[in-house]
Amino acid sequence: MQKINLKKDRKAAYLYVFLGGLFVAFLVVCNLIANKFVAVSTFFREEPFILSADILPYPITFLITDLLSEFYGRKRTAIVIFTGFIASILIIAILKLGALFPSIEESPVSSETYAIVFGNSWRVIGASMIAYIMAQLIDVQLYEFWKKRTKGKMLWLRNNGSTIFSQLVDTILVVLVLFIGIKSYEQIVSIIIDGWVFKVVCAIVDTPIIYVSVFLIRRYFNLKPGEEIKF
Question: How far apart are CA 121 and CA 132, in angstroms?
Fold first, then answer.
């Protein structure tokens, strides 16, 4: 690894904190909007995708962990992942705390509305947490594996390969925890397929984004392919 000068050392730390903060922010948003299901139409499929609204920002978290893995390594990426896990636990506690106090008459959000929106959040967030921690750790491990095997080359392989497989694990786990015993087997399979296919499309679409991001960061810190930032 290359030891960078003090100024870039500081900026490397800022970049790490910035990417980690974005990751936790997107994860929190995912947890808060996961109760809403939407139909997303695409040009390549006649039928719309039936998805939880959290699937729209969730692929960004994998893009961020891939960038963290690329430049800061598996251990520092794992710290960010576990920080997001703790943040999710705190969300459950805060939502439960908010439900303990009845709303006043002038409140724009009544206790009933609050219960409808967040009443089953513990199950949604719980399912997301189980799927999230396993999928993200799998993603990091696979990314690190392909990074070493390709000696820092073939960025598209480790980006898409790690994300596509880990997103399959994530989708299966979260759908099973949420809907087993509630929806039929056919409905569960359909939701899994829709969710995973949509995530695969997102992984492919974000490939140019990670290439541009990696190019700019490597150029700024003067890094070779596969080289990580040490600070």
Answer: 15
pTM of the model: 0.83
**Both tokens of residue 182?**
């509630």
**Phi-psi map region of 182: left, alpha, beta (phi>0 left; psi -120 to 50 alpha):** alpha
Residues 6+ apart with CB under 8 A from 105: none
Q: Are 179 and 155 in contact (CB under 8 A)?
A: no
**CA-CA distances (angstroms) from residue 182 to 175, 179, 187, 191?**
11, 5, 10, 13
Over residues 158-199, the pLDDT tens digits come to: 888 888 888 888 888 878 877 888 888 888 898 888 888 888
Q: What is each CA distance from 53 to 50, 107, 171, in whole angstroms?
A: 9, 26, 13
Amino acid, single-letter form, for residue 103: S
